[in-house]
Design goal:
The chain is of the alpha/beta class and about 550 residues long. Helices cover about 35% and strands about 20% of the residues. The protein has two domains: about 1-175, Chitobiase, domain 2 (2-Layer Sandwich); about 185-495, Alpha-Beta Barrel (TIM Barrel). The chain binds 2-acetamido-2-deoxy-beta-D-glucopyranose (8 copies). It is an enzyme of class 3 (hydrolase).
Length: about 550
């Protein structure tokens, strides 16, 4: 008896000193106890009989979750690692089952179908209960997407010590749902090409932190790797190589892979700027293609943009965007990129151009998403449903909100992953990245999504995302430049702002090591010495 209380006391002390759970993002409502609980050797995740018609992607998600329980083998981040918990585990109860079910009245749809719903109609909430006495754990939700989020959480509850998989925090009760509906990650596959396997690995990482939107910046000035039905010549002539093309089959593969992991794909076709690659197949539509010196025409080489004033070009663009939108089931499509006025009567031309392409997309059932300049710099008249991505600076959020458009946070001063890498333009040894410095996870995490906004303006905020422009990134450094930093916005927009960075860090270490166990090469955030001693390396510790 005395010995048991001593053990309890030890684990209670550890609970205060150490990160005893590796949940990321932090659930919005979490209660934990301090009992140890082991998974039985034959642990099963079963689908309730009421869900007899469980969609295939849910069944596959369950089997992946089960697999991770066996392969994560993550030792707790404390001095002594998994050995520390051995005494507590000798008397621990054993959990042999998690039962997954939908609430009464919920309609059964695939995770994919739920994930591809319009952004504000997705139901990602779930309730997870893990009793301490060994009786069955339960996961319930109103949608398969909610069940998927709950399975992701369940997979993060466990540690390994020798061959035992366990938690020391039972009982666990979680009621969770996201603070913001949009939590994204943008990848540019035009500056450098990424094979489908790399994109899928990025999608895996996104799904583990409950990111629900993959913003695929698929083409740009440098290359046009997307095969578009009816416009095949664009990739044939505009891709870096015939081996560096995303075929329609690849796109379907990526969209399905993402959908099954609770992620919708928002495709972006840059227009009217950033279109030099189109000149390879359609020189008639591009002005100043590869003109030099490039710096007189564009922010980076090569120069070239769509001929705004040409009716034929506007029509070509509208048709292209509609053809692209048919490849992607998402309700959204991203159209405009940064572009720079060249002096002609630009607003007029751009307004006509934008209205033609947006009208075509809206008619095709899509919501256009634009970069902020369309609102702040060019005073283009946009349909009210158009969503704006704020990228130049967080200082611009207020102005975009004042326009009344819904907005997504993507400000370079908080969320650009490529900043701080030095200059890449050649013959320029003193060059630097334009958005210095490197954005640390904690800097991104400190962002306030509603700073300076009125209560009504705050309602326009859909969420936010990290972004990776790939001038200096390829498959070889995709993982380390992205992870675990991109997880910081994933938690900020799921859990909401205001958590204490000091107490958050141990969980992020844990997540980062779990990513490594699952094959994603994250960067260390600190020396391991610090990771094992929460708080000890804080600035004022
Ligand atoms: C969390 O639970 C508490 C107590 O049960 C409740 O008052 C609160 O509204 C819940 N918060 C959320 C975000 O569900
Ligand atoms: C399902 O929806 C009902 C009605 O809105 C709600 O009361 C319940 O909490 C939801 N269940 C979950 C698990 O989110
Ligand atoms: C372009 O379209 C506008 C409006 O549809 C029309 O008035 C104009 O004549 C067209 N110009 C050319 C060169 O076809
Ligand atoms: C547009 O071009 C001008 C002149 O080249 C430059 O000063 C300005 O920063 C550019 N604006 C943007 C948004 O790129
Ligand atoms: C563009 O043309 C319109 C219509 O002729 C005119 O009202 C507007 O002032 C012009 N804008 C610029 C920047 O010259
Ligand atoms: C933007 O355009 C509207 C009309 O289309 C006009 O009323 C307004 O003054 C313009 N704003 C700026 C800053 O040019
Ligand atoms: C909020 O407003 C203050 C004062 O105008 C300004 O210094 C700050 O940069 C603004 N913050 C954001 C995120 O817009
Ligand atoms: C954050 O947590 C640390 C460690 O518990 C504590 O020392 C610090 O005062 C907290 N900071 C704030 C702003 O609450």
């Amino acid at each position: 008896m005395a010995k048991t209380s001593a053990l309890l006391l030890v684990s209670a002390m550890l609970a205060v000193l150490a990160p005893v759970n590796g949940l990321w993002p932090q659930p919005r409502n979490l209660t934990t106890g301090s009992s140890a609980l082991k998974l039985s050797g034959g642990f099963e995740i079963s689908i309730a009989s009421s869900l007899y018609n469980a969609p295939q992607d849910l069944q596959q998600a369950i089997s992946r979750s089960h697999g991770f329980l066996q392969t994560d083998k993550l030792e707790r981040l404390v001095v002594g690692r998994g050995d520390v918990d051995k005494p507590a585990l000798t008397k621990a109860k054993t959990l042999s089952q998690l039962t997954v079910s939908l609430d009464k009245g919920a309609t059964v749809q695939s995770i994919t179908a739920e994930a591809q719903k319009p952004i504000e109609e997705r139901d990602e909430g779930y309730v997870l209960d893990v009793p301490a006495d060994g009786s069955g754990a339960t996961l319930t939700a109103n949608s398969t997407l909610g069940l998927f989020r709950g399975l992701t959480t369940f997979g993060q509850l466990w540690y390994q010590s020798d061959s035992t998989t366990y938690t020391i925090e039972a009982p666990i009760h979680i009621v969770d749902s996201p603070a913001y509906p949009y939590r994204g990650y943008m990848l540019d596959t035009a500056r450098n090409y990424f094979p489908v396997t790399d994109i899928k690995r990025a999608i895996d990482g996104m799904s583990w932190v409950k990111i629900n939107q993959f913003h695929w910046h698929v083409v740009d000035s440098q290359s046009f790797p997307l095969e578009v039905p009816g416009f095949e010549e664009l990739a044939q002539k505009g891709a870096y190589a015939s081996s560096m093309v995303y075929t329609a089959q690849d796109v379907q593969d990526i969209v399905e892979y993402a959908g099954a992991r609770g992620i919708d794909v928002l495709v972006e076709i840059d227009t009217p700027g950033h279109t030099s690659a189109i000149s390879k197949s359609h020189p008639e539509h591009i002005a100043c293609a590869e003109s030099t010196p490039w710096a007189s025409f564009a922010n980076e080489p090569p120069a070239g943009q769509l001929r705004l004033a040409s009716n034929a070009t506007a029509e070509f663009t509208a048709n292209l965007l509609v053809a692209v939108s048919k490849l992607f089931p998402s309700s959204m499509i991203k159209t405009q990129a940064s572009l720079n006025a060249t002096g002609l009567n630009f607003t007029q031309a751009l307004t006509a151009f934008t209205q033609q392409s947006h009208n075509a997309l809206i008619k095709a059932g899509k919501t256009p998403v634009v970069w902020e300049e369309m609102i702040l710099s060019f005073n283009v008249t946009l349909a009210p449903e158009v969503i704006a991505l704020v990228w130049i600076s967080s200082d611009d959020v207020k102005g975009v909100a004042e326009s009344g458009h819904k907005l997504i946070h993507a400000a370079s001063d908080y969320f650009y992953l490529d900043c701080g890498g030095g200059g890449w333009v050649g013959a320029n040894p003193d060059g630097n990245s334009w958005c210095d410095p490197f954005k640390t996870w904690q800097y991104s995490y400190s962002f306030d999504p509603v700073a300076n906004l009125t209560a009504d303006e705050a309602k326009l905020v859909l969420g936010g995302q990290h972004l990776l422009w790939t001038e200096q990134t390829g498959p070889s450094n995709l993982d380390p430049i992205t992870w675990p930093r991109a997880a910081s916005s994933a938690e900020l927009f799921w859990t909401g702002p205001g958590l204490n960075i000091s107490t958050v860090l141990p969980r992020l270490h844990d997540l980062s090591f779990r990513f490594q166990q699952r094959g994603i090469q994250t960067i260390p955030l600190q020396p391991l010495w610090c990771a094992l001693r929460p708080g000890v390396c804080d600035l004022t510790a």
